[in-house]
Amino acid sequence: MSDVARVAAALPPGQHVLNVCSDRYRFTVGFAASLVRGKVSLLPSTHTPEVIRQLTAFAPDAFCLTDDRKCDIALPRTYFPEMTSEVTAGLAVPAIDSEQLAAYVFTSGSTGTPLPYKKTWGRLLRCVHNGASRLGLLDGRTHTIVGTVPPQHMYGFESSVLLGLQTGSALCAERPFYPADIGSVLASAPRPRVLISTPVHLRALLAAATPLPEIDLIVSATAPLSHELARSVETAFATRLLEIYGSTETGQIATRRTAETAEWQLWPGVTLTLKDDGRAWAQGGHVEQPTPMCDVLELTAGDRFLLHGRMADLVNIAGKRSSLAYLNHQLSSIRGVVDGTFFFPEESHASNTGVTRVAAFVVAPDLDAATLTEELRRRIDPVFLPRPLMFVDELPRNGTGKLPQDALRELAARHLRPPT
Amino acid sequence: MAPPGRAGIAVADVLVRNALYNGKDSHLIITCMPDNASPVRQPAPPASSTDLEREIADLIVQALNLDVKAAEITPDAPLYGEGLGLDSIDILEIALVVSKQYGIQLRADSEENEHIFRSLRHLVDYIAAHRTK
Prior knowledge:
The structure holds two protein chains of two kinds. Chain A is of the alpha/beta class. In chain A, 28% of the residues lie in helices and 25% in strands. Chain A folds into three domains: 1-89; 120-311, Rossmann fold; 314-415, ANL, C-terminal domain (GMP Synthetase, Chain A, domain 3), CATH 3.30.300. In chain A, helix 2 packs across helix 5 (154-167) and helix 4 crosses helix 5. The radius of gyration of chain A is 22 Å and the shape is globular. The interface between A and B is medium-sized, with 29 and 22 residues.
């Protein structure tokens, strides 16, 4: 609480905070300090110059809270105060009103502008409380949460930061990256230990055959895990693996024990309804308002459902989600691009991390690949940079101006190198 | 090729003596060991460092399914961010294939970590110095 009070005192007047602290503890303290001062935390999915510019338009008084002196984000910057071991006695944990707006999260809209979603404190807590219950973290023991995910991403925000605040679990400040580091950070974390991770990192751990210490629970989210992979993880690390399903808009809404079943179980109070537009809408419980889900969901019985895959326009690369419409909008906004489209190939290249990249076709006679990539880099998260980027004379648009998938597939086949 | 350290010459001696004793026509493998040789025996380095460079460039192109040819990767150009423009997922993928191929476990806290991916040449040097396979 002393740390929170000190940081709270150091925050400038702006109502909106972009908290980019990479250290999980500092992020959490910064977030708590913002709450205490009644400020709203902004959680965009990426920090490209274009997104920052759009955030400024959305919230002109936004400032950036960072723990990195080399941070170059184009917002007024406040550096996280030096940590001291001074403890101010007698600070009470403040009660935050459940209706207080705690944060805005953003998704990529089809118009090329990120869409904001409100997250009120009460609903965030309720969601995370249900999550903690599902994960078995409310058993009275102090768990240590180790995450490979950043605290700014919705999943990391809910399943490490808020989960820690809610359950009184110990949060590991470090965010390990290499398999060997994940192993050593876990080993230094007191039991019971929980690993909050994603399919990319779980695949990497299996591929590296890293010996891990005993882990009491592994949690995976951001992209669905196959039954086989879940079983491999449970066997290799002698542990339980639970998957969480949710979205930036709704937060977490369901879990499953993937090694045992394909069915997801919804959070108490949350319902899914299939509407006329063919989409499943989530509402109730902690969900702020009825929200269409971006995946193809099949309701089974009661509070269960199956996940059949993403909707056609969406791409999920290494757990980051975007829409092709959004990406195409960004591509077309580049001067010199006459026409262009992103394209998600059906066949994936075999890799240890299991990540398939999105490709792009572009008609831009006066641009070279380096310039175009640089321009894209200013606008979209690097994970979506096209690979490969194919320059063509024209796109195979049909009579109505649409780009049929099979025409694109054919164009890709002509350009892509045959697999060696 | 760097001259063999004392340990290297000792190994070569033994091989020569064995060859004479066995009366066999053995090939002498002069193993280049640094003075502070690690307990793990270093394998013979390839005939030139550019062979290893090409080998690693190939490995990267294959592992990441890149659209460039291995020979087109400028040895001194940055790998991460600019230059080849790789991102953290790519770095993880490279770490995994390097681990499998050369037996090196990459760690974020190693001093060299910032330098390892600074360029292909940096990566090659690191692998050459630390490989156990």
